[in-house]
Design goal:
two-stranded antiparallel ribbon; alpha+beta; elongated
């Protein structure tokens, strides 16, 4: 089990790793060794994630969320498979931990009477300036 926080832990069977060749610089090594990691987490079918966390995770994941309901995290920063595996797992845990935090509800506030007055006075002043810019009236 991989611990995300006190309430959420992910089972290892929910994760699938595939190794692909990394893009970018690396010399001859980059053409021979598959060091980049593609970590696939079946988030939609996960029994360990509550519904609201899944919904927030889908919104946070963006293009990394597939149509089948899986979350794909890639890591290719390091030159070794092991370090890239750790990096991908850290990215996944961080993303789930961010989705687990319930957003604070927005409290509606009303503008004060003084701020309304200032806004209207500013608009009137600006309108007067613009009127003075016009062509003079013919008499």
């Amino acid at each position: 089990m991989i611990r995300v926080n006190d309430e959420i832990a992910i089972a290892e069977w929910e994760l699938t790793e595939t190794f692909v060749r990394a893009s970018g610089p690396g010399g001859q090594n980059v053409n021979k060794v598959s060091t980049a990691v593609e970590l696939r987490f079946e988030a939609e079918r996960s029994p360990h994630l509550p519904g609201p966390v899944k919904a927030r995770l889908r919104r946070l994941a963006g293009w990394r969320w597939t149509s089948e309901g899986a979350l794909i995290v890639t890591a290719s920063e390091h030159r070794t498979q092991g370090r890239n595996r750790e990096a991908a797992l850290e990215k996944l845990v961080a993303l789930i931990a961010e989705a687990a935090v319930r957003p604070k509800p927005r409290v509606k506030t009303r503008p004060t009477l003084a701020s309304k007055r200032r806004r209207l006075e500013g608009k009137a002043r600006r309108g007067a300036v613009k009127t003075l810019r016009g062509a003079p009236e013919a008499e």
